[in-house]
C-alpha cells in the first residue's frame, strides 16, 4: 500500500506495561500520532499486556500519564491485548482449518534433542516439527502447541517505508508457535490479529521489530488479510553512539517532566530525533503535523543531544502564552515533588512570566529567575549579590529611595529616575543596577531591575530597598 493511498489512515502505539515509558517508546508514539493527525486519521492505543507476570496496572497508568503529559491524545478506548485472547485463539483455529497451521505434540526435550543433533551435523537449528504434515488420525491424546505452517521455500519481502525492501529467506524462519499448550495465544499472533481487527493501516515501530515483521506477514497472508504499511524506525542512541541506557541519563519519559522540560519542547525535539524536514529545527505542533512523513525518517540511529533539547525547549518556553505556561509549571512542580505554589505566588508569577521566560531553557531555570517574586522579604542576598551591597552602594540606594516613592510607576520614568541618580554620582546605569538587583532579588542574575520593579510594585520595591539601607 503506497504511503499516499487514499485509505483512511489508522496508526497505533502498542507498549508493554512492564515498566516506565522509555523515551524511545514516546518517540514511536509521537511519530504514529503525527502521521495520523496530519492526515485526518486515527491514532489508537493498545496495551500489550499478555505477559501477565510482568504486566502491572502501575506501569499501564504510567504509560497513560506520560502520553497525556506529552499531549498525545488517542482515539477511542484503550485496548487490552490480554482481553482479546479468545479472539486470537479463534484466528489460530481458523488458520488450522484453512491448512495454514497445525498441532505440534513435540516436547521441549524432543525439540532440544533435534537442535543438538542439528548442531552436531552442522545443519540449521531451526526446529522442523515432525507433526507438520501428520495425519490427524495419528495425533496422540497429549498436550500440543499450534504452529503456523510457514512456507519453507522462497522469500518473504518486507516492503518497509523506512528501511526499503528487506528480503528474508523462508528457510530462515521456523514454524512459529501461535497457541501455547495451555491454549493462550503468543504475542506474535496477537499483534497481527489486533492490528487487523483495529483497522491499522500503518505499523510504525522500532526497527528491533523488523525481523518480527517477516513472520507476521505470513500470518496476514495465511488469513488473506491486507498487509499494513510497515515503517521500522531506528533506535535512539546516547551521545556516545551506543544504545541508550540509564548511564546516559534520563531514559524514562516521566523523568523529563520532573526535570522541567516543557511538553511542547519535548514533542519538537523527539520529532526531530531521527526525522527531518529540510533544515527546520524549531517548529510548532501544527507545522509538525503538516510536515511529518515517513520519507523524512533516516535509517541511521538518532543520537540524544541534551544541548539541542534544552535549546529547543527554551524557544518553546519563550513562545508559550503566559496563561498556558503557568499550569505547565505547576504540573512540573508536582512531578518533581516540589512544594506547590501559593495563591499569591501564582499571581506574582503570572505577572512576572513575561520577563522570566525568555532564555529559560527549563522550568527550574525559569523559577530561579522568578525568585524575586516567589520569595518574600527580607531577602538574604547570596554571596555574589552581597558583594555589590558595599557601604557606597547602600548610600546610593538610600538616596534613590525617596525619588522612587514620588516617581510615576512606568518603565520610562523609572529608568529616568535611576539614571538621574547614577549621573549625579558620575557612574553608569550598570553600576547602580548591580546593588539594586541585589536588593530586589538577592541574586546577581535576574530579569531587568525595571521589570522587577514593575512586577512587584512601588510599595514592595521601597520596602526591599529599606531592608538593605536601614
From TrEMBL:
CDD domains: GluRS_core. Residues 9-310 form the Glutamyl/glutaminyl-tRNA synthetase class Ib catalytic domain. Signal peptide: none annotated. It catalyses: tRNA(Glu) + L-glutamate + ATP = L-glutamyl-tRNA(Glu) + AMP + diphosphate. A motif ('KMSKS' region) lies at residues 243-247. The keyword Thylakoid does not apply. Transmembrane segments: none annotated. Monomer. This is Glutamate--tRNA ligase. It comes from Albidovulum litorale. The gene is gltX.
